[in-house]
Structures are given as structure tokens and as C-alpha cells.
Amino acid sequence: MRTADFDYQLPPELIASEPLPQRSASRMMVVHRDSGLIEHRHFSDFPSYLRPQDLVVLNDTRVVPARFFPDEGGREVLRLEAISPLRWRCMIKPGKKFRLHQQFHLGGATGTVSEVLENGERLIDFDQPVDEATYGHLALPHYMGRDDQPSDTERYQTVFAREEGSIAAPTAGLHFTPEVLDQLPHAFVTLHVGVGTFQPVKVENVTDHVMHSERYEVPQETASAVNAAGRVIAVGTTATRTLESVAQSNAGRVVAARGSTDIFIYPGYQFQVVGALLTNFHLPKSTLMMLVSALAGRDLILKAYAEAIAQRYRFYSYGDCMLIV
């Protein structure tokens, strides 16, 4: 498989840079794998697609402000991991202003580059904790073409977000309201979405791509509910990757677990847990396009995307959604 096999052309005006006024007002394309039928519905119709003994599994990670702009100006720090309150692993730009032992300031805190890693990331040590509430920003995806606004603090967060640690939102969950969730049998996993979400696949052959690693947790109550379910409907690729990763290590069963996963799902993969998927529309040539193609078939997915473009669906993080059944 070639990365180019998962490409498509999107008119820029279909990229949703702002959310709809109401979360659950999104459109929902329904793709039927068995027949190839494509329906045009709304997210409010989602509960009607559940069957008896279905279980909806969602990612309850909470997005943290991970983007910082030092006082000196002309610099940017993206925190990938808070190893401790005083030590961060970061992506930075420009690199020439973050050489080994160089210092910068964030409010009253002084940061020092203590190590330059092989991949260009930096370890930064602070002399005191950074005031994240004042100086931190949400790292909105680049395709939105704007910086974060106060309204994003609430809207770029699912209503069920609990466990802090993500750089990006699990965007399929953004459509849910408490009222919709209350109608559904559901359970939660946690996968902290990392910077790899924004990184394109740069290799020509799909199998040469090195997947990023992300931290996850599956509680015991979720594992029990998943194993008892007739069909598991994953909300988002992050919930999908969590469930499939755990099952892959446990002979097809989901168990309570905590760790990191770099599972890479592309066509040819045999799903062991997930029977249906609610997901947003994804970037061309991305690992997420490959994942949904593994579930529904590449040809059907590309047909669905072409129809979504023709029907003027809204794309990406703040956009509309697709239900694959």
C-alpha cells in the first residue's frame, strides 16, 4: 500500500475553523459496510442506530493547555509531556533559540534547556512551576488557521472529559451532550492524544511509517462491559486504538490495563473488538484515514469522502461526523 492511495482533494472552505453553536447539531454521514449504502443524517439520529446489547465506548481524556509563548517573543514551546511540574519534554521553534543550556522566561518562571534529544525535542527544567492558567494556550490544529480563543476552552473539550493529559481533543466526542449520553449504554477508556495526531505520513509505503506512542488506561468496569457487549461502537479513533491494542495483547479480550500503545491500524487489520465507529472526517494521507479504511474498505471510504465534499459537509476537528456500521 502506498500513502498516496489514501489521498483526496478538499476545498479549503470546507475546513471547520469554528464549532457550531450547538454541539449535537452536526450532520452525520452513515456508511453501511455490508451494502455500501451511504445515508445523510444528523448526529441527533445517532441513538437510533444502536441495537440491543450495544455498548458505546468513549475517550474521557481532557485537553490541557500545552502551547506556550516565552516572554522574549519569537519563540514557541509545545509541551509533549510534563515529566514533573519542573521538567517538561517539548517540541520547540525555532531551534536556534533553544540550544543546550539556553534560558527563557514564562511569567515568573525561568526555563533552561537541559537536554537536546536526537529527534529534536528538548528537555526543559524550570526553577518554579509555570502558571499554566495564565500563560498556557490550547494547541489547536494548524488547519484551523487561528489561535485559540476563550470560547475554545469549553468547546474544544468533550462534556465528559475527566483525565488531564491530551494535547488534542478526541474530536468524535465533541458532538455529545449530557442529554444524548444519558440515552446510551456507555463506558470510558482514556487515551491521551499526542502530537502525532498532527504529523503527516511522510513515507511512500504505508508499512514504513513509524507510529507515535500514546498513554492509555482501561478501567476494570469498562473491560467487563466491553466483553459482555453484543457490539462495541467506538467513539473516535483513539477509543478504537485503545481497545484494539489491549485486545491484541490479550488473545482478543479486553482487560483492565494501563500503558502506552503505538498500534498502527491500516487495511488488512482484523478488528477484534470494535464493531462500529463514530468518527470525524480526517486529513488526507493520514494514519486516521488508514484506520477508517481498515474498517470500511478504502474504496468505500474514498467514495464516502467524495460524497461528503459534494454535499458540503464540514471537515476535521470542529466538523461533522461519520458513523461506520
If helices are DSSP runs of H or I spanning 4 or more residues, what is the number of helices? 7
The proportion of residues forming helix, as a percent range, comes to 10-25%
Instruction: Tell me the major beta sheet.
Output: 9 strands, mixed
Architecture per CATH nomenclature, i.e. the level-2 architecture of the largest domain: 3-Layer(aba) Sandwich
- The tally of beta strands, per DSSP, is 18
CATH class of the largest domain: Alpha Beta
- Kindly provide the radius of gyration, computed on alpha-carbon positions and rounded to a whole number of angstroms: 20 Å
CA-CA gap between termini: 24 Å
Secondary-structure class: alpha/beta
Order of helices and strands: EEEEEEEEEEHEHEHEEHEHEEHHE
Mean pLDDT: 96
Low-confidence blocks of residues: none
Report the sheet-strand fraction.
25-35%
Write a concise synopsis of the structure shown.
This protein is 18% helix and 28% strand.
Word description of this protein:
Helix 6 (287-296) packs across helix 7. Helices cover 18% and strands 28% of the residues. The strands form three sheets. It has a nine-stranded mixed beta sheet with strand order 2-1-18-17-15-3-13-14-16, with helices on one face. It has two domains: 3-63 and 143-324, QueA-like (3-Layer(aba) Sandwich); 67-137, Beta Barrel (Thrombin, subunit H). The model has no long low-confidence stretch (mean pLDDT 96). The chain is α/β, with parallel strands linked by helices and 325 residues long.
